[in-house]
């Protein structure tokens, strides 16, 4: 205790501010040194109470002072420490605030950049709106122009519909359809003298080889002589488009007569030369001639005919075919030329239509459409129109041809490959092909080629069968004449549907009559009546309409190639029926006409669903029917649609380009403008009027 007191006193004497590091308990138990020294260095346990109390009081006072000093020092230290901690926390907080303020500054700068871009976009959109307003005004003017043009076109069409049949037009059509008469004559001429020709083949073969020719071989040779005509027709029909474009419609017909004369001469000299191969080769040559005729004649007539007479005059093609059939059937009876001596003359008479056309056709003009659109000879086209219309007022025809030319500038001189690949022309090409198939696969050629044997198998005598075959030709001519006024009054599609439907019904009746002919005697007459009715409905529709509508479905550019493809398909089907019908008849016997009934049902459904009506429509209007695809509206089908879109595209190119979008900092959620604030479309087809949304007002708030 004494040592503690000494330390305490020394500390007091030195004036130390801080208390020494000892416990207050130690201070209480300490005895001061001067108390020990007063007792002579000896401490006793029995010191006086007064001294101890005084010493203790002094120590307590000293301790109290030290405690007060220590408390003050501790408080000061605590205050100092508290001030230091507060300063550190403030520094950290200020650093965080400074960082967030920097981010905020960057966000504000980014937003300012976005706002500048939005301002630029708004200026660009305003310019676009001004341009759109100008385009609207232009469109209104174009609409007014379209209305005026429609009125003018309607008046022009009415004037075209008022055109009549002139003498020179009739002369030109008569000279041209001699080619279709050639086709009809050679289609039916082989039917009546079939037995005479078969006997000639047997005789020639026996003279050559000394043995008799088997009946099956004779039938095969005769089938070749019949069907090779169709092979030549395929070749001629396929080359018809090339001939029409190179030599013209009239020029091609004139050159084609060389083949007609050659083929007829070969067939006429068959018996004199004792060579049935000459007959087969002559049938092939005359087939090429007829194939070219089936392509060139409908094309020529459809191009020279007035709008209101195009359907009726197109039916003249079929009338010429039926007249040729009737002439061949009348001349083929035994009383005239259907004998062993007369059949070469019967076949050789095919030279007459060719020579007659060579004499008549040179006085006719070339097709005005070919002259104006293909050759660009406007003055020659006007001269041809003046002769055909017997009038100097031909401006309506010229304007109609010019409209067709403008509508088909992109398809001028189109090749067959381009025709097959064109989406716009694929639909009319399909319709043209199916229409040709509906003519040939209807079973009518089976009637033409083998009508005599059909009637004989149904129970008629040979003489009665030949007269029934003549009745077929007469009915064809009469019903074709009836269909002439109906073509432009009722319409092509309607007549074709009636024709296919009637043929379907009577093909069933023909099958029924074949099945029960042995049970009922008079059923053979039902067969004759059903066959004649079958031919009547063929003459009403499928006989003439496929040739007419194929030429109508196409404008000047693709028409030759389309006609070539359609004629090729027609002759291919003709060949298949001609070569296959005898075998099919032997296989199916009384059910021979059932496959034709199935085809007729399919063709009726296709015509009802797909074939458009072309009555009193210009070539340009017919083309617009097939442009109305993929949901396009009627305005898109307008004849001026292409011109209007060119005008709009020209205006569209004058628009300012849109500014590039500004990059957005993905690290900070600064100011993300919506997509329509970042760019604007200058396409007049896709302009949408939108308002800028105030989405540039959200910032990242700093966490204090």
From TrEMBL:
Instruction: State the InterPro entries in the record.
Output: GLUT, MFS_dom, MFS_sugar_transport-like, MFS_trans_sf, Sugar/inositol_transpt, Sugar_transporter_CS
Membrane topology is:
Multi-pass membrane protein
What's one GO MF term for it? Answer: hexose transmembrane transporter activity
The record's CDD domains line, in alphabetical order, gives:
MFS_GLUT_Class1
Q: Where in the cell is it found?
A: Membrane
Coiled-coil stretches = 101-155
GO cellular component, as recorded: membrane
Q: Which Pfam families match?
A: Sugar_tr (PF00083)
In Swiss-Prot or TrEMBL terms, this protein is called Major facilitator superfamily (MFS) profile domain-containing protein
């Amino acid at each position: 205790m004494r040592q503690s007191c000494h330390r305490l006193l020394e500390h007091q004497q030195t004036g130390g501010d801080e208390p020494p590091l000892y416990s207050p308990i130690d201070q209480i138990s300490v005895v001061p040194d001067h108390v020990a020294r007063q007792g002579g260095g000896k401490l006793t346990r029995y010191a006086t109470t007064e001294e101890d109390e005084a010493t203790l009081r002094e120590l307590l006072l000293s301790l109290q002072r030290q405690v007060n000093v220590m408390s003050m020092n501790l408080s000061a230290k605590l205050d100092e420490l508290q001030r230091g901690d507060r300063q550190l926390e403030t520094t950290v907080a200020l650093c965080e605030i400074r960082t967030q303020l920097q981010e905020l500054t960057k966000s504000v700068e980014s937003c300012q950049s976005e706002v500048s871009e939005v301002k630029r976009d708004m200026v660009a959109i305003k310019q676009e709106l001004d341009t759109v307003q100008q385009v609207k005004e232009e469109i209104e003017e174009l609409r007014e122009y379209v209305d005026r043009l429609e009125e003018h076109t309607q008046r022009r069409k009415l004037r075209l519909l008022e055109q009549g049949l002139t003498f020179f037009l009739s002369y030109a059509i008569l000279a041209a359809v001699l080619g279709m008469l050639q086709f009809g004559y050679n289609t039916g001429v082989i039917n009546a003298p079939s037995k005479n020709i078969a006997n000639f083949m047997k005789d020639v073969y026996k003279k050559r080889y000394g043995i008799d020719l088997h009946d099956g071989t004779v039938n095969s040779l005769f089938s070749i002589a019949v069907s090779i005509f169709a092979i030549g027709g395929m070749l001629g029909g396929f080359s018809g488009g090339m001939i029409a474009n190179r030599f013209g419609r009239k020029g091609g017909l004139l050159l084609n007569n060389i083949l007609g004369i050659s083929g007829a001469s070969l067939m006429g000299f068959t018996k004199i030369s004792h060579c049935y191969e000459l007959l087969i080769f002559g049938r092939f040559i005359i087939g090429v001639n007829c194939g070219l005729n089936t392509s060139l004649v409908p094309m020529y007539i459809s191009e020279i005919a007035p709008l209101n007479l195009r359907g009726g005059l197109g039916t003249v093609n079929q009338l010429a075919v039926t007249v040729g059939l009737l002439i061949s059937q009348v001349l083929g009876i035994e009383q005239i030329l259907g004998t062993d001596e007369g059949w070469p003359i019967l076949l050789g008479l095919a030279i007459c239509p060719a020579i007659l056309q060579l004499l008549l056709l040179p006085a006719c003009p070339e097709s005005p459409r070919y002259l104006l659109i293909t050759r660009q000879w406007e003055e020659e086209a006007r001269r041809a129109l003046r002769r055909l219309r017997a009038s100097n007022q031909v401006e309506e025809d010229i304007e109609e041809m010019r409209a067709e030319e403008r509508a088909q500038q992109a398809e001028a001189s189109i090749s067959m490959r381009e025709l097959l690949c064109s989406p716009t022309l694929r639909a009319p090409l399909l319709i043209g092909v199916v229409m040709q198939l509906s003519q040939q696969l209807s079973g009518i050629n089976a009637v033409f080629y083998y009508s005599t044997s059909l009637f004989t198998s149904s129970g008629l005598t040979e003489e009665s069968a030949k007269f029934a075959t003549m009745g077929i030709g007469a009915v064809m001519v009469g019903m074709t004449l009836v269909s002439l006024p109906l073509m432009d009054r009722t319409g092509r599609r309607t007549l074709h549907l009636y024709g296919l439907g009637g043929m379907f019904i009577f093909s069933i009746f023909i099958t029924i009559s074949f099945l029960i002919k042995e049970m009922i005697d008079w059923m053979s007459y039902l067969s004759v009546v059903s066959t004649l009715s079958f031919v009547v409905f063929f003459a009403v529709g499928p006989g003439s309409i496929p040739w007419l509508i194929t030429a109508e479905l196409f404008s000047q550019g693709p028409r030759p190639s389309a006609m070539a493809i359609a004629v090729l398909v027609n002759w291919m089907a003709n060949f298949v029926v001609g070569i296959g019908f005898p075998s099919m008849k032997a296989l199916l016997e009384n059910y021979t006409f059932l496959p034709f009934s199935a085809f007729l049902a399919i063709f009726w459904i296709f015509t009802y669903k797909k074939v458009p009506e072309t009555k009193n429509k210009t070539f340009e209007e017919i083309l617009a029917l097939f442009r109305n695809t993929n949901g396009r509206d009627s305005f898109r089908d307008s004849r001026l649609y292409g011109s209007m879109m060119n005008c709009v595209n020209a205006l569209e190119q004058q628009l300012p380009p849109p500014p590039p979008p500004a990059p957005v900092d993905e690290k900070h959620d600064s100011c993300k403008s919506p997509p329509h604030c970042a760019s604007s479309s200058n396409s007049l087809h896709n302009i949408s009027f939108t308002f800028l949304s105030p989405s540039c007002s959200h910032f990242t708030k700093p966490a204090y």
